[in-house]
Every structure is written in C-alpha cells, then in structure tokens.
Design brief:
By secondary structure, the protein is of the alpha/beta class. The chain has 9 helices and 14 strands. The protein has one domain: HUPs (Rossmann fold, 3-Layer(aba) Sandwich), CATH 3.40.50.620. The chain is 30% helix and 26% strand. It comes from Modicisalibacter luteus.
Length: 269
C-alpha cells in the first residue's frame, strides 16, 4: 500500500493514550513508563490522528517531572485527572474516555508502580463494552471503522487481526521503542489538571504491602546450546547424589525431611 494512502486512513482518527508514572529499574527514580511511552510513539506514528494523553493520579513534583517526559515526545498537553492517594482510577478514566470519545485507546500492559496488575485495560473495556487487543505491535491501517493490526506472539511471531473500533489495545515491549524526550517541548508542554471525584479502592485498603522476598533459587539449571540437549537434560532421570531414601517412616518424619530439604535448597527461609 502506498505510504500516502496508508497515512490518509488515519485522518479524523481520535486516539487516547493512558499514561502512568514509571520507575527506573536501577535508581527507582520516577520516569515515563517504558510501555506507555511506546504506546505514545505508536499513536504519534499514525499520521493525521488526534492524540490525547490522559493520566489519572496525584500531581506531586516527581510525578510532574515524569509526565513531562511524555510532553518531550512532541505532545502539547497531558490531561491530568487529579485523584487522591489510594483511589480507584478506573471510574475517573471511564468518565474521561466517555468525554473524549476516542476510536482507539492505547495503554501499556501494566504499570511500573502501584499494583501493576495489568487489569485496568480490561476493566475499562468491560465498562465501555469495547474489544481488547493485547500485545499490539503495529497498526497497519484503519478503514471504515475497522483496524488492521499486528499482534505480537511469542518467539517474534506476528498475527494480523481485524478489529471493529472503538477498541482498547495494550502495548508491550514488542512495539517500537519510544523516541527520546526533548527538554524544550517537555518544559513548554502543559499539564492540564482537572478535578474529578475520587472513588476509594476499598479492596486495596485491606491489603498489607511489604517488600517482595528474594525468589527461591532453581533446583537445577540446564545450560546447553540446543533445544534438543536442554530437553534431554530436563527429561533425564536425576542421578542420586546426596539424596536420602526414606522407607517405613511416619508421616511426621517424612514431612520433617522434606521441610529440611526445602530449607537447604533455599526454597523456604
């Protein structure tokens, strides 16, 4: 398809991108979320489409700097819906999407901070009655209210789908990387804040949050160049080294032996 024809198919398209505040994996500093930034990049690649960025949450100084990272991609404005700490942002996002009336909603697969459950796109789609596309890699064309897209599959494979709009799509690391954020546009862009009633997340309020424990180490690590060798090693019967054969023991003695082995291997602490 000629480039001009493909670009013209996006004329009049209204795209909303839901953005969040990310966290750098090493420094833990606030930043634009990687998957959300890829979603913004995908929206900007749709020539002549109207792109709206929406964020629901607090507006602290760290959050503001992170959100300006999206403005530095060439976006003039981020719609900031103020929400109190511990609020459920889904109702506020539903109201914002109904006001914006986009044909396509893009968002990352899951947030880098907070719950990070990845359920928000599905909750929004359920409330709005829209289909969901997960693992969106590319939007090829949009014609007569139908989007032709490529969905990312494991091992680098792609699947072509045709979806009736409006729809919600999640973008992960298989999508093209986002452009760098420029300092000047990030400073000139506007964070258009508006108040919206906060709905308390009663379920989250009952949770007890603590730092994650170190993951248990794997009992056996198989290193091999070919998949055939790895399969043979995984299927092979393990040699009995320092193992212990228990016979004619009571359930309590067997349980104690298993518990001691799990502690020795680092599965239990």
């Amino acid at each position: 398809m000629p480039h001009n024809a493909k670009s013209s198919s996006h004329a009049g398209l209204n795209v909303a991108v839901l953005v969040s505040v990310g966290r750098h994996p090493l420094t833990a500093r606030a930043r634009r979320a990687d998957q959300d930034a890829r979603a913004v990049e995908m929206a900007l690649s749709m020539s002549d489409a109207a792109v709206h960025l929406i964020h629901a949450g607090g507006n602290g100084s760290d959050n503001e700097e992170a959100l300006r990272g999206y403005l530095g991609m060439g976006i003039g404005e981020v719609n900031l819906i103020k929400q109190s700490s511990g609020a459920d942002v889904v109702p506020a996002l539903i109201n914002a999407l109904r006001d914006t009336a986009p044909q396509l909603v893009l968002t990352g697969t899951r947030a880098e901070t907070g719950e990070g459950s990845g359920l928000v796109p599905y909750l929004l789609a359920e409330a709005l009655g829209w289909p969901v596309i997960n693992g969106l890699a590319q939007v090829e064309s949009i014609e007569q209210g139908v989007a032709t897209v490529l969905q990312a599959l494991p091992r680098g494979k792609r699947r072509r789908l045709r979806v009736r709009l409006p729809a919600v799509a999640t973008v992960d690391s298989s999508a093209p990387a986002a452009r760098q954020s420029a300092f000047g546009p990030a400073r000139r862009g506007e964070l258009a804040a508006r108040a919206c009633a906060s709905v308390p997340d009663e379920l989250q309020a009952q949770w007890q949050v603590q730092p994650a424990r170190k993951r248990p180490k794997r009992l056996k690590i198989i290193k091999s160049a070919s998949a055939r060798d790895r399969f043979k090693a995984a299927a092979a019967k393990a040699d009995s080294g320092s193992g212990q054969l228990l016979s004619d023991v009571s359930p309590e003695q067997g349980a104690e032996a298993i518990f001691a082995l799990l502690k020795e291997e680092g599965v239990l602490r």
